[in-house]
Amino acid sequence: MRFFWVLPLLTLPLWGSTFYIVSPYAKLHKEPNAASQAESLPEGTQIRKLGEEGLFIKVRYNKSEGWVNKLFVSANPPQGKVNFGSQIDKSTAVQARARASAYSQTAAARGFMESKPVRTKSPKEEYDFESIQWLENITSK
Amino acid sequence: MVLQFLIPLAIFLGVYSCTSSTEKSSTEVSRQVKKEIQLGRVVAAKLTSKYPLVKDEEFTKYINSVGGQIAELSPRKEFFYRFGVIQSEDVNAYACPGGYIFVTTGLLKNIENEAELAAVFSHEMSHVILHYFSVMYEESWLDTLGSLLAPRGSYVSTALKKAADDIFFQLFEKGRDKKYELEADRASVLFLSNSGYNPSAASSILKKIYQNEKNQTLVQTHPSLSERMNEIQKTIQNEKIPLIGKLNRETFQIQYTAFLKRNKI
């Protein structure tokens, strides 16, 4: 009972997640609209989210508070493109099947599903990965 | 008495040290992004299984050049944004996690210029950017769905099938939350303006979509036309966005006419 006062404190760290400025267009606005007074924010800057209104998030930066357009921030730090699609090879597929098998076995052991996978429609019918591969090849050229 | 104070303080500091460190390592980010793309590929592959992808190289490259101008402005630069045409009379467009975006042949028939195509892509891209799919679904789901990447001839368990069906239903049949759709409308106006397209295209294409009788799926999964138009108008006024910019009607018409000639649609 005596420690109950500490419970609200435990929620404090969850408030104010970190975002990163990922666009040269980003500005710190006085109000949550692009027409309000603003100062530039350099790319890569870390900001703490304090609130949200429409397309803007309220942030703290350099001891002052302001608003940044959501379209100019990311929860991830700036990084290069991840071209995952065209990198799928046989070994990836083998690993994927192994993961699926492990999942099935664990689930079966817990009584959640049949012990053996059931063959549904072939992936060709239900998941058209060939078309996605075609699109990835066209757009990577 | 001292312990009464110190124990809660120790708990607080312990939790704070664990949760306040929200900075992600590049490995962690890369892992998360890969999972998001994996999930996107599975959903996209299910979509193209239902509605065949139109494999017209020239037109696909053209629409990707249009979408690419919007993608340049995306804060999520880790994705390759890919735009494709799927064969369906339904007037609709789809955004899959990881940047896979599709427009139906039914919707293309309603588009008059490049700015309207850019408006459709802007709205869909906003879903990819703003509504983090990887946050919406548990890690275990992503692992499970990722295993669907197994190539042809492999087995798909009933549990995997159900997971893929659920996510497909949630995104494309039940629809997203209304607030996400309106937020994507607001964002699309900004994307159009910042990429040099006339933001008026956002409202002109919406009017045509809602007037078309083959829009049932879209209407069922999106807010009303008046709500969406109102949101667009408010954004234009509040952000003081000038209604100027390129429409590129002729370029679009040349490309689209050639596309129709090459494909029996």
Please give a structural write-up.
The complex is a heterodimer of chains A (141) and B (265). Chain A is elongated and about 55 Å long. Chain A has 141 residues and is α+β, with helices and mostly antiparallel strands. Chain A has a five-stranded antiparallel sheet, with no helix packed on it. In chain A, strands 2-3 form a two-stranded antiparallel sheet. Chain A is built from four helices and seven strands; from the N terminus they run αβββββββααα. In chain B, a hairpin with a 3-residue loop joins strand 2 and strand 3. Chain B is built from 13 helices and three strands; from the N terminus they run H-H-H-E-E-E-H-H-H-H-H-H-H-H-H-H. The longest helix of chain B is centred in the first third of the chain and has 25 residues, at 26-50. Chain B starts with a helix and ends with a helix. Chain B is mainly alpha-helical and 265 residues long. In chain B, strands 1-3-2 form a three-stranded mixed sheet. The interface between A and B is large, with 71 and 81 residues.
What labels would you give this structure?
heterodimer; A: 141 residues; alpha+beta; 5-stranded antiparallel β-sheet; two-stranded antiparallel sheet; 7 strands; 29% helix; disordered N terminus; B: 265 residues; mainly alpha; 3-stranded mixed β-sheet; 13 helices; 3 strands; 5% strand
- Unreliable segments of 5+ consecutive residues of chain A: 3-15, 86-98, 110-121
Strand order, biggest sheet of chain B? 1-3-2
Distance between the termini of chain B: 80 Å
Question: In angstroms, what separates the terminal alpha carbons of chain A?
Answer: 65 Å
Number of strands of chain B: 3
Which two chains share the most extensive interface? A-B, 71 and 81 residues
